[in-house]
Design brief:
It is built from 7 helices and 8 strands, in the order βαβαβαβαββαβαβα. The protein has 216 residues and is of the alpha/beta class. The radius of gyration is 16 Å and the shape is globular. The N and C termini lie close together (5 Å). It binds D-xylitol-5-phosphate and zinc ion (ZN).
Amino acid sequence: MDISASIMCGRVGALAEEGRLLAEAGVDSIHVDIMDGHFVPNLLFGPEIVRALNDATDVPLHAHLMVTSPGSYVEPCADAGTDVFMFHIEAEPFPLRLMERVANAGMTPGIAVNPATPLDFLRHLSAPYVLVMSVEPGFAGQKWIASGLDRIAEVRSLVSDDVIIGVDGNVSPEKAALARDAGASLFVCGTSSVFRPQVDYRTTVADMRSTLGAIA
Ligand code: DX5
Ligand code: ZN
């Protein structure tokens, strides 16, 4: 089970410190939302934020590319120390070619998919990671879209067992347990789990871990 802390939900003015605290709290990875203000109506982190976190921590860094031209970010993200590069299928006409470029750059490719995007593209390609959006991307603190669990189960039915299915958006511990049962094993944790006001990360990460169970 990969508990992946969505760093955009942390103290943006103290990201390196947040990364260290999250690593000490036992997260399995840190999820970095890269937004270009075009694919999503929000402008947020870039590859240099990944570099800053890479300098501050040793945990794996997952970049979630919410950008219209994900191919432009392959080399900058690889150079910054990104481990997993997840781009949106909606933004990429040539996903097979892009996944090859990502792998050749030394990162593991993943494909993110928005809540209303049909999943049958998964009959025609395989990616090491598939990130199922349970909110429309761009902002933290949104509400879970009801189709999330069914879509995770549908992805599970379409891909091989070695594909890691992630879920991203309003993933509370309760929702994470349901998502696990539907086939997910990567949980992007934001304001409804790890980043809760006045609760330290050791506690919130331990809560999520105990809800999910220690079974890998
Ligand atoms: C939303 C991002 C998520 C977000 C999760 O576009 O992809 O990673 O930060 O935050 P919550 O868990 O609050 O929805
Ligand atoms: Zn994300």
